[in-house]
Write a sequence for this structure.
């Protein structure tokens, strides 16, 4: 629905805001590197298209990070696929701010 009203805004990142924040890691810990789970050829095509689209828009960039979180694909109720990431490993080493 948002895209229907502001199509030019849907293709760029929002501006930086005061509530943007850093993720603080517990002392003596590192953000984990977790491999992706195996994906089917069909799932790989969906992921590749999503990556190409979002790299082209500048929403994401190639990572040089030593950490990684696995991708998950979830079926949308109306059809299609939602790409998610499993951040449980990162959450385990994060200093909670609440």
């Amino acid at each position: 629905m948002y895209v229907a009203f502001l199509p030019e805004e849907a293709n760029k990142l929002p501006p930086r805001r005061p509530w943007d924040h850093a993720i603080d890691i517990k002392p003596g810990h590192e953000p984990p590197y977790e491999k992706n789970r195996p994906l089917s050829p069909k799932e790989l095509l969906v992921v590749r298209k999503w990556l190409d689209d979002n790299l082209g828009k500048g929403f994401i960039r190639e990572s040089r990070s030593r950490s990684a979180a696995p991708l998950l694909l979830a079926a949308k109720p109306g059809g299609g696929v939602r790409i998610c990431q499993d951040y449980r490993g990162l959450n385990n080493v994060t200093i909670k701010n609440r």
Q: What stands out?
A: The chain has one domain: 2-92. The two ends are 33 Å apart (CA to CA).
